[in-house]
Amino acid sequence: MPSERVSPWFVGALVLPLAVIAGFAHAEDAVLEVAGALPKRGSLKIADLQALGAVAATWTVHGEKHELRGVPLDRVLTRFGFEPGPMGKEISKHDKRKGWRMAVRATASDGFEAVLSCAEVFESMGTTRAMIVWQVDGKPLSADRGPLRLVVLSDKEPSRSIYSLRKLEVLDLRSGGTGSR
Question: Fewer beta carbons within 10 Å, N or C terminal of the chain?
């Protein structure tokens, strides 16, 4: 009896649609963990992020312009109770603006990390524009780059814009930067 061989083209024709379907299912189930020195901790799916007030932005990286859809990072931190803290003459130096002495560490699924100060990402304080993005040029992020990405629009290079974002952790720098790693 002759042995039958399956054409590589046929296998590719079957595998590619399954990968696409799996990628879309993965995107819907994507969870961003939010942890660390916050009043609340938890996770957000893309629908939860969209509910925080999705915004559009234009990002130019490596000479190419891209249209993004996402939510500002400060809205995510605020959702979990982050506050800069009180300010005024009656407040002790130790207690003034405690939140501005914190940082957020963003971690990708491959372990790559980016760090931003909490003060810089809040529009009321800093000039850094950071977003959690789920769509680029009208399409969901590809399976190898998504389903979520941290994009720092105001950086001159994309070193802190990380693919496959999985976790945000707020670090209290006054306590040696410890968080819930």
Answer: N
**Per-residue pLDDT for 11 more than 60?**
no
Summarised one tens digit per residue, pLDDT across range 124-138 is 999 999 999 999 999
173: pLDDT strictly greater than 80: yes
Query: At 174, which amino acid appears?
Result: R
User: Where are the domains positioned within the chain?
Assistant: 31-175
Q: Is the dihedral of CA 73, 114, 138, 141 positive or negative?
A: negative
Q: State which H helix or E strand residue 18 sits in.
A: helix 8-29
| Torsion of Cα atoms, 11 then 136 then 138 then 49, to 10° | 100
Task: Find, among 43, 80, 47, 108, the residue nearest to 170 by Cα.
Answer: 80
Give the CATH fold of the 31-175 domain. Sulfite Oxidase; Chain A, domain 2 (3.90.420)
Please give the span between the terminal C-alpha atoms of the chain, in angstroms, as a whole number: 59
List, for residues 102-129, the tens digit of each pLDDT value: 999 999 999 999 999 999 999 999 999 9
